[in-house]
Amino acid sequence: MKLSIAAIALSMSTSALAFAPAPMFGVKNGVAATKALKMNNGNFDLSGNSWQPDSDKMGSTDTGDYYPEGYNPESEIAFSSGMMGSQAMLDGGNDGPELPGMENLGADAIMMGGIEENSEIPAGMEFVPSSVPDGEFAMNVASQGSGETLVIECPPVCMTFEDFYAAFSADSHPSFSVSPQAGRMDRRGGEPTVFEVTCNPGGQGGDFSANLVINLPEDNSKICYKINAKCF
Fold it and tell me: How far apart are CA 9 and CA 20, in angstroms?
């Protein structure tokens, strides 16, 4: 039994040695020895790279900016031709070649269609003031004079250009009038629309009031101003 155990242990140690790495150092006469790498046998060039440029100095290898040989700027296409893009002619420039028959394109053109503004209030449109006006103004008017005019700057409130119609509500005093009555309002952030409200009492005295309603039908909204006039 002991003999079998010894045989098994010997076989396992032999198999393990088969996968062990080979030693880098050898032992000779009890002294560790190394294997020297000999490179002076004439097969190796240890002098390095001996290449040098013709100018004995390293220079740029990029191609310089220069005209080609025999280039004549008077007979060749200018190098700057087309640098401003296809929209350059819109600014009045006309440096590029023109197609035959299109040299005068647009000079005598007739515009058809386009966006038209309504100059009159549509029939049946109602001008109903809101319960809370967007602004309130007061004015003093001499009853025996030719009337007074109030200037109202209305800032745009819509995201796009909108047609507007301006008039007074039915319960407003008839001495009030407004101009313009129709037009197109700028989009939000643009220029305000200026309205001129005139009160001409025609010799009447008293306190008169009116509600200016500015309808924006495409936006389904309106702007309202309350105006009080003291005629003396």
Answer: 17
Among 223, 219, 172, 227, which Cα is nearest to 196's?
A: 227
How far apart are the C-alpha atoms of 46 and 39, rounded to whole Å? 9
Please report where in the chains the tokens 């967007």 appear, as a residue.
134
Q: Please write the tens of the pLDDT for every residue from 61-115.
A: 555 566 667 777 777 766 666 666 665 555 555 555 556 666 666 666 665 555 5
In angstroms, the CA 76 to CA 84 distance is 19
Phi-psi region of 178 (alpha: psi -120 to 50; beta: other; left: phi over 0): beta
User: In whole angstroms, what separates CA 7 from the centre of its chain?
Assistant: 87
Q: Which amino acid is at 215?
A: N
Enter the DSSP assignment of 89: G
Q: Sign of the CA dihedral 50, 55, 59, 65?
A: negative
Torsional sign, CA 226, 186, 165, 163: negative
- C-alpha distances out from residue 230 to 38, 74, 143, 197, 220, Å: 119, 79, 9, 14, 33
Q: Is the pTM higher than 0.70? A: no
